[in-house]
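User: Can you help me understand a structure? I only have the sequence.
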Amino acid sequence: MKKTILAGVMALAMTPLASQAETGAGCGLGSMLLEGQEGIVFNVLAATINGTSGNQTFGMTSGTLGCDGNGTVTFAAAGEYLNANMEQVARSMATGEGEAMETLAGLMGIAEQDKGAFIQVSKSNFSTIFSKENVSGTEVMSSLTQAMAADQTLSKYTS
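Assistant: Let's start by predicting it. Here is the structure, written out as tokens:
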């Protein structure tokens, strides 16, 4: 019984890492050390090294370790955040307030003056965005983007 619970906890703990592994570990020491290696095991290992040592932030600010701090944040980064924080985003979106929506807005490149509209449109369309109990991050992102495209203020972020 204890082994089953431990395995479940470990699987949940690895979920954010697995979502990173699908698109690569990004820049950082782990990525440099394992450069050229392929497969989920190496990507998870590189992401773990990057995440536990906190070297990506240093790399982005210094322009080292294969990082470019001037890169553009993409919806892919927002999707990865969403996959790792689905429950928090759902709660924040349903109430129309909270750090999870602020973070998601930032990752999606929503300007400060448009964050209120983003949060309101998300809250108003919550039942469409989270259309079923086990909705995937991809489905949420697609529905959220559709809701944004229908809004005059937010449509500029979807083109």
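Now, to help you interpret it: DSSP finds ten helices and no strands in the chain. Residues 2-22 form the longest helix (21 residues). Let me know which part you'd like to focus on.
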